[in-house]
Amino acid sequence: MSLAERLARPEILALPAVDIAGAPVAGTIRLDANENPFESLVSGQPAINRYPDPQPAQLRQRMAGLYGVPAESLWVTRGSDDAIDLLIRGFCRAGVDSVGIVEPTFSAYAQFARVQGAAVIAARLTSDLEFDADAVLAAMAPAALKLLFLCTPNNPTGTPVDPADVRRIAAALPDTLVVADEAYGEFSNCPSLAAEAGPIPNLVVLKTLSKAYGLAGARVGCAVADPSIIDLLARVSPPYPLPGPSIAAALATLGPERMPVHAERIARLLAERDRLLGQLGDTEGVRRVRAGGNFLFLEVERPEELAQRLAAAAIRVRFRAKAAPGGVRVTVGTEAENQALLAAFGLTREAGSSRRAEIVRDTNETRIALAIDLDRAEPRRIASGIPFYDHMLDQVAAHGGFSLVLACEGDLTIDPHHSVEDIAIALGTALKQALGDKRGIGRFGFALPMDETRAEVLIDLSGRPFARFEGSFASAAVGGLPTELVPHIFRSLADSLGAAVHVRVDGENDHHKVEGCFKALGRALRTAVALEGRGDALPSTKGVL
């Protein structure tokens, strides 16, 4: 008998197999699910008149790859909250079984246990809000414990739980399912335990797409465990736990072309978290501040006064007096949102520019995700599928002095045209969005000689698109990039950026000529987008660009 069978509620084990209609199968007539056969009157959505896959196979496989586990060891749930509820309903009998928690922690553990009629046994973090494995074991040892929830990093305190402590607790409590909730794991230095759920038979790991991947509204998460535990969760899971639009959103956001932008966003949030940690840690009235996940946990001297200031500034945080005296959990927001928070604490700094943009552009031929920051030189990570084009775009960003993270999945098996064109459109759109109202910029730019080649790019960020390309190439392609597309790139960029772009190139070596055009574009953009220290002056006598 497996551990899951020994621990599960007998009535759950006695349940018959679930009998529901599966996902639609192409080429068949579906008359088995009592659905409305007509498509919904909601545009832009998948076929939501049909029931979705009870356990979406493609998403399950993608999430298994994301977390490095076998698909049969993962069960997709409506956020990790749903996984918590399924575990408690599957293993805890009302009035008989117990659930362990380490307070202060995520309130859903105890809430769902009490709804099920299970007892709650609580250990506590230390007075310094540190995790003490020995104290946890001492508190849990006398109990007939079915589940022990360990949130790592902990919500709301940010306390990490060493994976070695989780392993030790799991070994010491072999008849208890030890649940490591890694909802905030992507923001932690601790390695994930997901790959060990299964090899350690009583370990369950919870993950979610709500935090690091921005899908809180879609409600997508999962439980990772030994397949026998996953089979038990399947018995208590709702027939169709995830709506079709949520499945589609999850698959889209986890597309390979999106992952570099996710990594860059996480890095930005961590940098902002560290900035807040440093500034708030030295603020009068803040006794202590701890960073964890995508949030901070503060202990303040006058929480009522702070609540009034934050309310006046229309800033919402979570006050957690039961976690610690004056406890406040603050989510890390955008740079502008974080600056508003600091201002509520009486901290100000010279308003820096935040000229960023993120673009997602999907067509039938290409899927593009792009992030640009005109005021940072790094990171630069470009994956267009055409290595030479990657190099050219990197030249534009490097010589332009801005950060560019770009990935494209395109129909290169047909030809490079769609990828090359759509990337240029996305880049121009992102530049336009990042420039905002263009106040304080140089507006005009131009450049440069390269060996025997002379490449000149004149640019005017006028808001009026126009492109002219003077030059020719003897070769059909350079490094896999068709030379006939080079003028097209500049025209697509000019159209989407809303700029006048004039290019003139001559020389003997086509490689140098192509590279010279892109380097010159970078130098021209560097001058044109540069802030000239004139405050909010608009470089136009018309008063608008």
Automatic annotation (TrEMBL):
Transmembrane segments: none annotated. Its EC number is 4.2.1.19, 2.6.1.9. Keywords: Amino-acid biosynthesis, Aminotransferase, Cytoplasm, Histidine biosynthesis, Hydrolase, Lyase, Pyridoxal phosphate, Transferase. It is found in: Cytoplasm. Pathway: Amino-acid biosynthesis; L-histidine biosynthesis; L-histidine from 5-phospho-alpha-D-ribose 1-diphosphate: step 7/9; Amino-acid biosynthesis; L-histidine biosynthesis; L-histidine from 5-phospho-alpha-D-ribose 1-diphosphate: step 6/9. NCBIfam families: hisC, PRK00951.2-1. This is Multifunctional fusion protein. It comes from uncultured Sphingomonas sp. The gene is hisC.
